[in-house]
Amino acid sequence: MNRYHTASKALIFALLISLIAASCNSPLEPDPGPTPGGPVIAWFNGLGNTIDLYFPESDSLVTSAYVTGDLPSDIISYQEGRIAVANSFSRNIKVFDVNSTGGELFHIDLPAGSNPYHMSWDGEYLWITLLMTSQVAKVDLCPGGSVSLIDVKGNPTSIASTGNRVLVGHGEYWPDSTITGGITVLDASTGNVIDSIATPDNVCFMRYFSETGMVHAMTTTYTGDGLISIVDPVNMEILTQIDTGGSPGYPVEAGSGYAAGDGWSSGNIYFYDEGGTLIDTWNTGAGGTCGLACIADTMYITDFNNNMVYIADWTSKVILDSLTAGEGPQGIVVVER
User: Fold this and answer.
1) Is the pLDDT of residue 231 over 50?
2) Smallest Cα–Cα separation from 51: which of 59, 62, 60?
3) Is the CB of residue 5 less than 8 Å from the CB of residue 174?
4) Domain containing 247: what range?
5) Which residue in 107, 176, 263, 268 has its CB near the most CB atoms, within 10 A?
6) Alpha-carbon distance 173 to 217, whole Å?
7) Would 301 be classed as within a structural domain?
8) pLDDT tens-place string over residues 33-71
9) What's the rounded mean pLDDT across residues 303-315?
10) Does position 18 have pLDDT exceeding 90, yes or no?
11) How many domains are there within the chain?
12) Per-residue pLDDT for 254 more than 90?
């Protein structure tokens, strides 16, 4: 059994025995009062079922600002001040406004047993993979918004939407052992399958970068074979690949290049470009580098294993400070306001 399955079982087990972390703002009593100015760093705690907020301009941290559903799996910032969180066990999407703490704005339910997994926002619709039903959901992200279901091949894990096309990455072995990877390309307007792209096994994460028009696909079987594939979604081909020797997670822009953490596997961060060069590997010393977010030269790094979020200068490769997070911090985003 590979490390992905072991980590997933550990998450599920810990979820069942953990208690929701104590908070400095009660999630049952929304606080509509003003919050500090500037951008917000938001991350979800996968074992605590909570979201923490950090306000860089005032150096203030609000722990357990919101309660998610059961076993959150992904987070995105999709409008000014708003974040959406996918919840695997609760099979829903919850939306919050970082200008107030405590209550959700609204939520959208997804099919029972579907296990919503990863999300992508195309500027108009939210796309989300439904791991257990071999489907992708196209969601009108508003109160009472519609949900359209599109059938794809098994193990849909990662997803990247460009506006015109949707790329769906497939995992290895679970829940369908006959499928090990690859990318399915959908027409965003019709949901029809246009083509497929052969990749190495287990497409764990994908992200579309509108500045260059490329999709970055992260593949690994968690045995030091992690490749980053630079995918042209128009011509539907892999242009180049970067061998990290690890298990790269969600990528982010870092200056003129990109960076990806090593997930639960190590404290490494991989810096690379779209030309196929691994520029640098930084061993941060963290217990894991599950999620990254950047504002200029400052990088925020979630450490799932140690319940910490680190603030770093990624240009000099120095950890500047640390924040105590909830239980099992994972996905992290910058929310502009």
Assistant:
1) yes
2) 62
3) yes
4) 3-285+328-335
5) 263
6) 18
7) no
8) 567 889 999 999 999 999 999 999 999 999 999 999 999
9) 97
10) no
11) 1
12) yes
Could you tell me the pTM of the whole model?
Answer: 0.90
> Model confidence over 73-94: pLDDT tens digits?
999 999 889 999 999 999 999 9
Tokens of 98: 């970082």
Q: Which pLDDT value is given to residue 2?
A: 39
DSSP 86-126: EETTTTEEEEEETTSBSS-SEEEE--TT--EEEEEE-SS-E
Distance CA 298, CA 25 (A): 27
Q: How remote is the C-alpha of 306 from its chain's centroid?
A: 19
Asked if residue 42 is part of any domain, the answer here is: yes
| Element housing 8 (H / E) | helix 3-17
pLDDT digits (tens, 9 = 90+) for 113-167: 999 999 999 999 999 999 999 999 999 999 999 999 999 999 999 999 999 999 9
C-alpha to C-alpha distance for 80 and 75, rounded to whole angstroms: 14
Residue 109 burial (CB count, 10 A) = 12
Q: Flag whether 317 is in a domain.
A: no
User: Does the N-terminal peptide bond of residue 175 adopt cis geometry, omega within 30 degrees of 0?
Assistant: yes
Question: Cα separation of 198 and 324, whole Å?
Answer: 41
CA distance 300 to 197: 32
Measure the CA–CA gap between 151 and 242, rounded to whole angstroms.
Answer: 31
Is residue 201 within 8 A of residue 171, CB to CB? The reply is no
Q: Which residues of 114-140 are buried (b: 16+ CB within 10 A; e: fewer)?
A: bbbbbbbbbeebbbbbbbbbbbbbbbe
Rg (CA), the chain: 18
- Asked, for residue 17, whether it belongs to a domain, the answer is yes
CB of 98 closer than 8 Å to CB of 40: yes
Structure tokens at 115: 């296990």
CA triple 161-299-95, angle to 5 deg: 45
Give the residue ranges of DSSP H helices in 135-213: none
Distances in Å between the Cα of 183 and the Cα atoms of 68, 201, 232 are 29, 10, 12
- State the CATH number of the domain containing residue 44: 2.130.10.10
Asked whether the predicted pLDDT for residue 10 surpasses 60, the reply is: no
CA distance 136 to 116: 9
